[in-house]
Protein 1
Amino acid sequence: MIDGNKVLFSGMQATGTLTLGNYLGALKNWVTLSDEYQCFYSVVDLHSITVRQDPAELRKRARNLLTLYIAAGLDPEKNCIYYQSQVSGHAELSWILNCFTYMGELNRMTQYKDKAAKHADNINAGLFTYPVLMAADILLYQSDVVPVGKDQLQHLEITRDIAQRFNAIYGDVFTIPEPYIGKAGAKIMSLQDPSKKMSKSDENANASIYLMDDPDTIIRKFKRAVTDSEACVRYREEQPGICNLIDIYCACTGKTPEEVEKEFDGKGYGDFKLAVGEAVVDVLKPVQERFADLCKDKAYIDGIIKTNAEKANYYATKTLRKVQKKVGFPERIR
Ligand code: TRP
């Protein structure tokens, strides 16, 4: 609890370009959650270097992501928006938690197996202990809730296990976090293969709408979106392409699938795809405009970065000192 509010933690990696899926599935909901919780939204750059990064590129992407958090509507006065690498407590707690995590547990992580297969030439120890760093992120702020996608649930489970193990030995040190399963954040699928999630790492640029795509590109990508031969706008399992477009349309307009079916009754895919494209353009335009304005104001963003890193550091240090004391480290020399 901070000032009587429950604590929420989440983070994103600055790898790849954010997609409409990241926005409708996560960022947009973060904004709603910030009314209810004391939120920490981190740009998790320590996690990013588990795979090779170009330094200049990483720096640029991380700053863009942090700026985008604000452009998407997160108020940096209310939410703690910061770089993970600027709060050393993450790395310090991560080391301690490493000593309370079993190799066998980490071996079971499916994301590790996937990433190791994908980066066979660089299976580093960081990639293996990635979930421990994530546990440190969450536990450092005594987080009550963590909004995560399905792919991260296993990491939240291990976080809970590590916290419970530590608490069993040393007393109630960590809050045990719960996954946040809210009104299902829209799960947006690829426009070219609706059986796959829309991903920032898809090689086919037509499969994803990027947050910074201009209106013409957005409309063009929707026109090319894969559908099927039924030629009617119905929300049916055997039409996954159309279902995805309906989901996107609903997430952008607040309408229900039934309302959408009625609206497009008797109309073809062409009309519908255009409407979806326009709805997405309307949702992304204000975010893009705010982003462009914010990028012009370097001093303002620099100020946000500084004050929020200090705020994060204050809470992180509180937990870290408690943990260090519990495990038997000497007091810090001031
Ligand atoms: N691993 C998460 C992802 O790739 C990002 C992340 C890092 C995170 N630390 C976190 C998410 C803590 C939630 C809480 O999506």
Protein 2
Amino acid sequence: MKGKQYGILSLALSSCLITQAGNKEKNAGKPNVIFIYADDLGYGDLECYGAKNIRTPNVNRLANHGIRFTNGHATAATSTPSRYSVLTGEYAWRKPGTDVAAGNAGMIINPAQYTMADMFKSAGYTTGAFGKWHLGLGDKTAQQDWNAPLPTALGDLGFDYSYIMAATADRVPCVFIENGQVANYDPSAPIEVSYIKNFPGEPTGKDNPELLYNLKPSHGHDQSIVNGISRIGYMKGGGKALWKDENIADSITVHAIDFIKRHKDEPFFMYFATNDVHVPRFPHERFRNKNKMGLRGDAIAQFDWSVGQLLQTLDELGLTRNTLIILSSDNGPVVDDGYDDRAEELLNGHTPTGNLRGGKYSAFEGGTRIPVIVHWPEIIQKPAVSDALILQIDWLASFASLVNARMPKGSAPDSYNRLATLLGQDHTDRPWVIEQAANHTLSVRTKNWKYIEGSEGAPMITWGPKIETGYLGTPQLYDMQQIGEQENVAAKYPEKVFELEQILRKVRNKTLKIK
Ligand code: NG6
Ligand code: CA
């Protein structure tokens, strides 16, 4: 594989490798890299993955001219651990405190840790992060002063610029954070945040349902009210800085476009993490009522629009050819995730998981098998569909190889260079991938088999979403050549169960490496 990658490098970077002159020249030819990271977008949610009720022309364009993967996997079935893994190249289950984070969680990635942004920066890239963060901010949980610059933020993780939401749209604080400070800060409305108790006199969804003029909760989500939608957690103040949900996609996209324009003459890395299609789904009016799936469908259309805006900007600036775009999702889909948005009744035959079993949170495939599309016209000239088994955790080492970055010893311990596979130049399956369900049940997936370790836990999610967890007291084994993880064949193939158990044991104690 190494030789092949060098081939790519020499094509794309030959000029830069020999030029010693100023930074600009040194970096000439390096591809820009844009990582488009949707939230809760399922394997079956895009037109190019078979969705029938929704048009996604901009994502289709990427798929039609790139490599579309049918066996791509996120490392976890929820956001925080998935994002942690992809940005650090370390399985989240190795590190305590990486479960779904509150909006006032302290920074989960240690500033000293090596990240994808550090890697790009070391290779001469300008780096930017946009949209959903959900990996904590500031030194200490619940100790942040949101009215002053945060002492630790994305600048400490290698991002030159960031315009982010602290956690999720359903968690306070409902403000954007730009370079570690609340954007559009309103001094007349100081911000306070708590995940323990409300601030005196502040309305909540629970006590003041009459104030919920935009969306009502279906489960949970009944604490502070912002923009007529109640959230998880309590906040006070914010004033003009508070977001309007219907403008979130616009805000993120406009800032991202601005970043591209500012850095059009130097290589840039952009982490573009959309809020769509996470709850609360409240897309802009111009996306409403255009498909039969209601707000969830509108949110997918809005996601596609954001993708289109980035593409159009690259086109206008003449950057499309030498920009590598990788598009994916942080975990599998969920229909009712806590707001009464009628997503369930309006599915109209749509299957967000594309018929995979389970969904977000789950140990089954629906939890972690997600769309992955790679687009880079300069190098990928023959569009293709690849069924190679790939895992998001490998993107860090793969991109490091792409840009010839030297990763410090011990960094990104679980990330392997699979660049040639990502670019469609070979179809080598990862020998195994490890996946984490919401309750930390781990699975080992190989091309042909899936092993789910035995674990405690109810067969269905207990708090609202109608999703099979895949948890069972004893180990399960599925033949992945059969569709849908229907028949547990653990009793039939004990030696296979043993083999996959050994893989898990050795990955856990770091004695198994991929050659
Ligand atoms: C759950 C929330 C859900 C969502 C999820 C995190 C409730 C009842 N449910 O706890 O709405 O926010 O956390 O989603 O509060 S993730 O995609 O960011 O991981
Ligand atoms: Ca998610």
